[in-house]
Amino acid sequence: MDSSILLKIAKKYKTPVYVYDEERIRKNFRDYLLAFRSRYPKTKVYYALKANTNLAILRLLRQEGACADVVSGGELKAALKAGFDGKDIIYSNNAKTIEEINQAIKSGAILNIDSMDELNRIHEIAKTKNKKTPISFRVNPSIDPKTHPKISTGMKDSKFGIHIENNLAFKAYRFAAELETVEIKGVHMHIGSQITDIKPFLEATDKLMEFVKKLEAELEIRLEYIDIGGGLGINYEGGDVPTPDELAAELVQVLERWSHRTGYEPQLWLEPGRYVVGNAGILLCEAQSVKETPYKNYINLDCGFNTLLRPAMYGSYHKIANLSAKENNRNYDVVGNICESGDILGSNRSLPETKAGDILAIYDVGAYGFSMSSQYNSRPRPPEVLVWGHSAELIREREDLNDLFNKQNIPDDLL
Length: 415
Known about the structure:
Helix content: 25-40%
Structural class: alpha/beta
CATH superfamily of the largest domain: Alanine racemase
Largest sheet: 9 strands, mixed
């Protein structure tokens, strides 16, 4: 987005403020879908709501033909509110509550099961319904995705999924096949996030298809779909990152080899989140002060890890630019306003000489930005703005101080 537009948005809506590029979101989704569907027509793309749950963004993705991957009752409600049909929603979560299971069954969503305990819980609830509940199992392929440990989700010691090893996933399918309350639809895996190497995807898919073959050969279970999850990374700081086209070219070859061997061509489901919205978001902040010390120079912003958690949580890199100045570059640590030493948004950044009142832009925050924000230090969450061309629309209002306390109560005996 042009800096002049961003400066106008900062002036109108104040800072901090999240800004999203609608055109880029649409293009990212189309590129992802086309990369796979052009090679494998039986492809469906389920947008991972956890990346960004704003209703306006969900609505425009629904217009583009997206289905929805949700992980909570709140995300399920958001998807339904944005116009997704229940049959186009997959509900994946490793600790579904009774209330959430009931919500999912009522909506018609597919329940993606994470454990045998969960299957038993779903079975008991489904007994009270008049129809079979569609299910799949999340399996753990024990594959290292070569990404940050906190977002590696398909390794043998991960909390997610039922392991393919030791026949655990096989036994789960065998048990479910005997139940009259559920209808087995597919199989699911998700090995991690921000993955920048194609090889783990290929290894995991090959292992998944071997498992699918075993289900058909030994249990006569032919699945409608395989869901390989999401996880494809984006380019935060330069370097080579595979494109959806590059991933699709190799992954579809794996599927075609299995199809030739077995005569079986399941639907392919994918769950991108970061790739769709990540590079479409910018966080605008204002420098409140600039501090020089004998050791470092600091730019103190009006936002912190309550607004953008990723740098503090993962050590993540985000490009930062000063939109108000262009000359006399100096090195700064760009830090937030939260009372934690770890509230650093960018270390040792070369930026134009900065002064209080300058507007800074933090890039590639469309995924896991607002959705991971909080009210820590009793700071209200920022607004969100959607841009199309030269038009900007407020799609979430800024919280105010009253929003911090509206749900709180002081007992009478303390008054």
